[in-house]
Amino acid sequence: MKIKWGVIGCGGIADRRTLPGMMLADNAELIAVMDANKKAADNCKEKYGAKYAFDNIQELLAIEEIQAVYIASPVFCHKEQAIAAADAGKDILLEKPVGLTVAEAEEIAEYCDKKGVKLGVGFMMRFHAYHQKIKELVSSGMIGEIVSARAQFTCWYPEMENCWRQDMKLAGGGAMMDLGVHSVDLIRYITGLNVIEAAGFVGNQIFKYSVEDAGGVIMRLENGAIAYVDSNFNIPDSAAKCKLEFYGTKGSIFAQGTMSQVEGGEVEILCSDPSLSYDANQNRDTFNAAQVMVEFGNMYTKEITEFGKAVAGERDIPITVQDAIASQKVIESAYISSADKKYQCF
Ligand SMILES: NC(=O)c1ccc[n+]([C@@H]2O[C@H](COP(=O)([O-])OP(=O)(O)OC[C@H]3O[C@@H](n4cnc5c(N)ncnc54)[C@H](O)[C@@H]3O)[C@@H](O)[C@H]2O)c1
């Protein structure tokens, strides 16, 4: 069964990534696209063979055959558009972050729940073949009990005019909201551990827009492990490797370049000698070091296919809004603790 889709917001992520991915999904059919800028909608209609293009959400939502909408508009539009889609009875795949604040995200979640529509969130990096593989390796116990994790996700994002992502009122936050939320989500997803406490710092060092150009958060996972996330809008793209690291009592997993908009990167696993005892020389020879190999696919095709299966009742929602809110809470804790100089307990 093919799920009939409408797409709201035809900008960067929709046009460059998700719509091309949707075209490859066996269970998806694109019916209509909408963007506040009609030219952007017309462009996607033409490129991806939609039947309709609109600059008004109500016209798209009035099309009865549309079962699910993908909302990829700027964050400040999410609440109003998710509510409108829920009122129209459409299931919703909403881009991250869910809302401008955790409180707004919770309102969206409650409204969709009340209206009985399915709401999933677009943390597509969970579908990256390497992230799936790392999750499998961690779950198998290969590196023992997780004692530490770390994720860095950055980009170079200089001041630009009329850029919603650089305006606190329109984006809700900067490097941490935009990039750091993926890192928190991946650490929670891969370890399967909730965050129970978090504190962080945010600030502006290089760029003077109203959202932070850098931030970091330290979190305590429910098994006692401490994890670290740092995100910058002020590191040149070619100067960062976007590392994702998991350390356990029997070994570790290092990924670099996997946190990206396309599947790629490399992953190495280091396992220690199973007869490990205290070594005063702190010898760092590893018992077994290996490159992990996977077959890359298209994260967006998997995201659309899996949410489509949930719409069809063939599986649960792959990434629930409650799950996404748990990650957004950690990001918000960095803003709160940076302002109040206190840390947050969940
Ligand atoms: N999952 C990811 O890795 C990822 C990556 C990039 C963006 N995103 C998310 O996707 C969303 C869009 O980001 P983007 O980078 O594509 O932004 P963008 O600025 O490139 O595109 C946004 C589009 O929305 C349109 N728009 C503005 N107001 C609108 C409205 N009221 N109704 C409909 N369309 C409207 C704009 O004209 C533009 O075409 C954001 O929530 C962002 O956080 C997620």
What does this structure look like?
This protein has ten helices and 15 strands. The protein has 346 residues and is an alpha/beta fold. The protein has two domains: 3-124 and 300-318, NAD(P)-binding Rossmann-like Domain (Rossmann fold, 3-Layer(aba) Sandwich), CATH 3.40.50.720; 126-297 and 328-345, Dihydrodipicolinate Reductase, domain 2. The strands form two sheets. A nine-stranded mixed β-sheet has the order 14-13-12-11-7-10-9-8-15, covered by helices on one side. Strands 3-2-1-4-5-6 form a six-stranded parallel β-sheet, with helices on both faces. Helix 1 (12-23) packs across helix 9 (299-311) and helix 4 runs parallel beside helix 5 (102-115). The chain is globular. The two termini are 41 Å apart. 49% of the residues are buried. The mean pLDDT is 95. The chain binds nicotinamide-adenine-dinucleotide. The site of nicotinamide-adenine-dinucleotide has 22 residues, from helix 1 and helix 4.
Give keywords.
346 residues; alpha/beta; Rossmann fold; Dihydrodipicolinate Reductase, domain 2; 2 domains; six-stranded parallel sheet; 25% strand; binds nicotinamide-adenine-dinucleotide
Quickly count the helices: 10
Would you list the SSEs in sequence order as H and E? Answer: EHEHEHEHEHEHEHHEEEEEEEHHE
CATH class label of the largest domain? Alpha Beta
Q: What would you give as the CATH superfamily of the largest domain?
A: Dihydrodipicolinate Reductase, domain 2
State the low-pLDDT regions, or none: none
Question: What is the count of β-strands?
Answer: 15
Helix content: 25-40%
Strand content: 15-25%
Shape: globular
Q: Between the first and last Cα atoms, what is the distance in angstroms?
A: 41 Å
**Oligomeric nature of the chains:** single chain
Helix/strand-derived category reads alpha/beta
Gyration radius, in Å: 21 Å
Annotated CATH topology of the largest domain: Dihydrodipicolinate Reductase, domain 2
The chain-level mean pLDDT equals 95
Major beta sheet summary: 9 strands, mixed
